[in-house]
UniProtKB/TrEMBL annotation:
It holds the Pfam family tRNA_edit. One of its GO terms (biological process) is prolyl-tRNA aminoacylation. Catalyzes the attachment of proline to tRNA(Pro) in a two-step reaction: proline is first activated by ATP to form Pro-AMP and then transferred to the acceptor end of tRNA(Pro). As ProRS can inadvertently accommodate and process non-cognate amino acids such as alanine and cysteine, to avoid such errors it has two additional distinct editing activities against alanine. One activity is designated as 'pretransfer' editing and involves the tRNA(Pro)-independent hydrolysis of activated Ala-AMP. Keywords: Aminoacyl-tRNA synthetase, ATP-binding, Cytoplasm, Ligase, Nucleotide-binding, Protein biosynthesis. One of its GO terms (molecular function) is aminoacyl-tRNA deacylase activity. PROSITE patterns: AA_TRNA_LIGASE_II. It is found in: Cytoplasm. The keyword DNA repair does not apply. Transmembrane segments: none annotated. Its EC number is 6.1.1.15. This is Proline--tRNA ligase. Residues 38-474 form the Aminoacyl-transfer RNA synthetases class-II family profile domain.
Length: 578
């Protein structure tokens, strides 16, 4: 492409409304433009990068034997009601009606559609297993779109779906996709981790992993081990203390006999954990924190140690709840008889979810369900039930790893770029998608689901690969592989050499951008840094001796001189070795 006629509207100023670095650079570099909140147009440079991502995804999907389809974005709402997800998905599901007053949703995902399709077309085990994938525009009515392509209302995803007759075949499909994802993200130049994950609204009956691009700007906490390969998102992570608490709670029954009876005492104005620690001179690990929640409209109390934070996703999963929110002060007063800050488990007449660390405590201090009072010598299992004990807290930095003896947990930030699920029969049962086995017996398909945020990948790459001057695209994703820059478009020798190299590279299948604009060299180099093409060849006065300048974007190395006659071969060798 010749830059003189290319549609590359770069900007000199940083966009004021762009928070994330990737958002700033994609707009400033002329890759995307916002149409409305969370909705973006891809300009030629952005579309070229997006096409490269799609090419990598297609190649690796087809390498697994998956076959590409294209499914409708418009889906009947009744299909979502049949699967049970119409209400579960909540207000993020885009709903509309056609002229016949039939309700339609714009698909944020395609489990229902693909399950119905395969259920109609495959009826026998002889056609299994099969994996189908698509690269398709999705829609999600985000309450607060932000960070450019990282949280959009309209975006491109790759989603694949496997259908099998047994769990062994599902395991094989899952492993094939898991391995393919590693290849895809490595080819995109990303530093990433596969982490144990929560299935969320997609659900399922088996394992699930998220693929997280490591980035300080990420919205998700990722818990990793300093020594082994343990990794989980915060919604699934556990520390070794949680596992140890299982044994401790089982072994402490006799110890409760030596603890005095629970005793109420006056604690005026000591509401928060910080107030209690300072006022009573005890550690947060000696306090039992009681949090009142409303789960699908019904009250529930969750108990964690005072020095821990509660994980709402773990609580929702334990209750199989769709909605979970902290009770307001009026509700807390109605349930406990006390102001917020004085709730406790003793004599509380709502369900209690008790974190395993609380269950393992010999005794502790808790709220008395009376304003300005707490209770000491509270013994879990003696003074309140442990019927619903479980892991309800966040793992924390520095805790011992649950998988190895040598490691400790670290919390890092990540951007979710892919997710793989073992769905089992969650959708095939509800949508009556079945096949017959060799004996003629009918069974629901055993399914897997595998997604990649294609547009989101662009932002994830930039969050990891940029400097103060612009983007640092890896060769496989870059909009062009080589940027040819003649110093002066009025110098005939420079322009002749630039055109000669440009045509040579094009004929060799290498995509080059020729900056033939009548701009000053400083402007050209600033735009080149911003756009981030991996190889830059500057043609200046040295062309009189047949010399050009070669520089690799982001290498930190100074430009080197080489013969124009060698430049084409040098490009081919460099790209071949990447």
């Amino acid at each position: 492409m010749r830059q003189q006629t290319a549609f590359i509207p770069t900007m000199r100023e940083m966009p004021a409304d762009a928070e994330a670095v990737s958002h700033q650079l994609l707009v400033k570099g002329g890759f995307i433009r916002q149409l409305s909140a969370g909705v973006y147009s891809f300009l030629p440079l952005g579309r070229r990068v997006l096409r490269n991502v799609e090419r990598i995804v297609r190649e690796e999907m087809e390498r697994t034997g998956a076959q590409e389809v294209l499914l409708p974005a418009m889906q009947p709402a009744d299909l979502w009601r049949e699967s049970g997800r119409y209400d579960v998905y909540g207000p993020e599901l885009v709903r509309l009606r056609d002229r016949g007053d039939r309700e339609i949703v714009l698909g944020p995902t395609h489990e229902e559609v693909i399950t119905q399709l395969v259920g109609q077309e495959i009826s026998t085990y002889r056609k299994l297993p099969v994996t189908l994938f698509q690269i398709q525009t999705k829609f999600r009515d985000e309450r607060r779109p932000r960070f450019g392509l990282l949280r959009c209302r309209e975006f491109v995803m790759k989603d694949a779906y496997s259908f099998a007759a047994d769990w062994e075949s599902l395991d094989a499909a899952y492993r094939a996709m898991y391995d393919a994802y590693h290849r895809i993200f490595a080819r995109c130049g990303l530093a990433f981790r596969a982490v144990e994950a929560d299935a969320g609204a997609i659900g399922g009956e088996g394992g699930t992993h998220e693929f997280m691009a490591i980035a300080a700007s990420g919205e998700d906490d990722v818990v990793t081990c300093s020594h082994c390969d343990y990794a989980a998102n915060m919604e699934k992570a556990v520390g070794r203390g949680t596992n140890a608490s299982l044994k401790a709670s089982a072994d402490k029954a006799d110890a409760a006999e030596s603890v005095p009876d629970a005793e109420k005492f006056h604690t005026p104005n000591l509401r928060s954990i910080e107030d209690l620690v300072a006022g009573l001179g005890i550690g947060g690990n000696e306090l039992i924190k009681t949090l009142i929640y409303m789960a699908d409209g019904s009250p529930v109390a969750v108990l964690v140690r005072g020095d821990r934070s509660l994980n709402e996703t773990k609580v929702k999963n334990a209750l199989n709840a769709v909605e979970l929110e902290l009770a307001d002060s009026e509700t807390v007063l109605e349930i406990t008889g006390a102001a917020t800050g004085f709730a406790g488990p003793v004599s509380l007449r709502i369900p209690l979810l008790v974190d395993l660390e609380v269950a393992a405590m010999r005794s502790g201090v808790a709220g008395a369900n009376e304003t300005d009072f707490h209770v000491r010598h509270v013994v879990p299992g003696r003074d309140f039930t442990l019927e619903k004990a479980g892991d309800y807290r966040n793992a924390e930095e520095g805790e011992a790893c649950p998988n190895c003896e040598a490691g400790s947990l670290r919390v890092i930030r990540g951007i979710e770029i892919g997710h793989v699920f073992k769905l089992g029969t969650k959708y095939s049962e509800k949508l009556n998608a079945r096949f017959t086995d060799a004996a003629g017996v009918s069974h629901p398909f055993i399914m897997g689901c595998y997604g990649i945020g294609v547009t989101r990948l662009l932002s994830a790459v930039i969050e990891q690969r940029h400097d103060e001057n612009g983007m640092l695209w890896p060769a496989e994703l870059a909009p062009f592989q080589v940027h040819i820059i003649p110093v002066s478009h009025q110098d005939e020798a420079q322009m002749e050499a630039a055109n000669e190299l440009y045509e040579q590279l094009r004929e060799g299948g290498i995509e080059a951008l020729l900056d033939d604009r009548g701009e000053r060299l400083g402007v050209k180099l600033k735009d080149a840094d911003l756009i981030g093409i991996p190889i830059r060849i500057v043609i200046g006065k040295g062309i009189a001796e047949g010399q050009v300048e070669w520089k690799e974007r982001g290498s930190g190395e100074p430009a080197v001189r080489m013969a124009l006659a060698d430049a084409g071969e040098a490009v081919r060798n460099k790209l071949k070795n990447r």
